[in-house]
Design a protein that fits this description.
GO terms for molecular function: hydrolase activity, acting on glycosyl bonds. With 231 residues, the protein is α/β, with parallel strands linked by helices. It contains six helices and twelve strands. The longest helix is centred in the C-terminal third of the chain and has 21 residues, at 205-225. The structure holds ligand LNDFFVEH.
Amino acid sequence: MAAAVPAERDAVARAFPGRVRESALPGAALHRITGGPDLLAAGVGPALAAASTAAALTAAALDGRPYALVVSAGIAGGFAPRAAVGSLVLADEITAADLGAETAEGFVPVTGLGFGTVTHRPPAALVREVAAATGALTGTVLTVSTVTGTAARAEELRSRHPRALAEAMEGFGVAEAAAAHGVPVLELRAVSNPVGPRDRAAWRIGDALSALTEGFGKLAPVLQSWNPHEQ
Ligand SMILES: O=C(O)c1cccc(C(=O)CC[C@H]2O[C@@H](n3cnc4c(=O)[nH]cnc43)[C@H](O)[C@@H]2O)c1
């Protein structure tokens, strides 16, 4: 599981009873829970999240215990009215919303320039199972390098991505690292603030972290019985 910051990582850890052991990776520390997942505070933003997640994936593979799944997790901004503060959102599409070029005709995604990808899709059957177990809303979760701070930008993202439930800053980077290793990815987030005009007073980080702990408590049994080869 790759969160951005230690507070998110520790909220996930609270869902698992096992002992935590720390091991060093290049640029990040891995928290390994006995009988539970490995947890990473991978850093804020898609680039650092990709670099840290790639380091963890490579270390695990070289150690002969490759991961079967990577989960990007943390808090997020929610697009009202679909994703209210305190709700859980699960990505069926993880989309880089600002990777491309600005043109006189509007934004062109990097795929329109002939490069790469802008969307990763988690395994559909697993998304259905996890949504049923956790009660999470499913839809597109956007990855941005710049947090939305105006109604105009929120409206632009809504019109370009009508299925968007939430925005955060790491999912696409984590998904790129997972894809490079041929490992499936999920993105599960708890909404801490509405996407729109900047209003720090409206943030509910504590509530979102509690929702994240609760969500991972419900996710754990699904992952224990999940067989990646059935996807
Ligand atoms: O200073 C601000 O106005 C501001 C607004 C939203 C988020 C931040 C952060 O520094 C947190 C970034 C951190 O949390 C995730 N996150 C949470 N809410 C959002 C959001 O509305 N848009 C994008 N990212 C969000 C993100 O994944 C980062 O890890 C500051």
